[in-house]
Amino acid sequence: MSKPGSPLIVANWKMNPETLREAKVLLAAVRRRAARLKHTRVVVCPPAVFLQSLATSQSNQLGFGGQDCFWDTSGPYTGATSPTMLYYTGARYVILGHSERRFLGETDEMIRRKVRAALGAGLKVILCVGERERDTEGRYLQEIERQLTGALTGLSRPWAKGLVVAYEPLWAIGLKALGADTPAGFLEQAIYIKKVVSKIFGKDAALSLPVLYGGSVDAKNAARFIAEGEAAGLLVGRASLDAAGFSKLLDAVEKSYAAQSSPRA
Ligand code: PGA
Q: Whole-prediction pTM value?
């Protein structure tokens, strides 16, 4: 695969922390660390109710995102948040199709409509795909292809520029995880994802598509996904809630990328 650009680290806080006060403390630590990053970019995705208070200043190294959005800009949709609302509260990214939302009933068709609306609102979409189980017959590949085509079919090629795909196998996510994938396992999936995307948007779009890894990422394994797995970045859940651990993770990624991009003798 071609060499990735600056690593993108997405912090998916999910439904945490409980109070805005705690969220501000956590963000302050991330902000301090991000200010010293030269290569790595961090996108913090807090709960939507905290966005307005947190996304007050953005920089090249630190940006903000939503964890989901609705497929329309306004209307009679109780409880929903539109992509334009996210945009105007400071988000420039939105995570869509996360497995925890698919588990709550989100279908490929709903995700497709959300992707279109979010891109239309000027947000970059972090589209999550990943199999339930890595079976030996290769059915998991069909599952990933279905998720990608389900979410992207019908979009015209220029929209591909706003797209990031996060590969997150379900068995590697959250408290019940079996553990992270291997960097080699991720690399195989990333190549497959690009192959499917090239059928939809063409080869150039597929080559420049950033593919992130997510699922039990921590300070110990993060750098290997960037270096050995050639990941364009990482989608981090639990480990993004611990300020000290997340800073270590950012350090590890930054060092690994700097070593990769420095000229070799
Ligand atoms: P995890 O979650 O890092 O806690 O496994 C990742 C995710 O769900 O995005």
A: 0.96
Q: Which of 100, 131, 143, 168 is catalytic?
A: 168
- Nearest-atom number in ligand 1 for the CA of 235 is 9
Burial code of 22-53, b = ≥16 C-beta within 10 A, e = fewer?
ebeebbeebbebbeebebbbbbbbbbbebbee
What pLDDT is recorded for position 177?
82
Residue 243 buriedness (CB in 10 A; 0-12 / 13-18 / 19+): middle
Residue 74 CA, ligand 1 centroid: distance in Å: 30
As for ligand 1, residues whose beta carbon falls within 6 Å of it are 12, 168, 173-174, 177, 214-217, 235-239
Whether 168 sits among the annotated catalytic residues: the reply is: yes
For the segment 133-168, what is each residue's pLDDT rounded down to a tens digit? 888 888 999 999 999 999 999 999 999 999 999 999
pLDDT tens digits for 36-46?
999 999 999 99
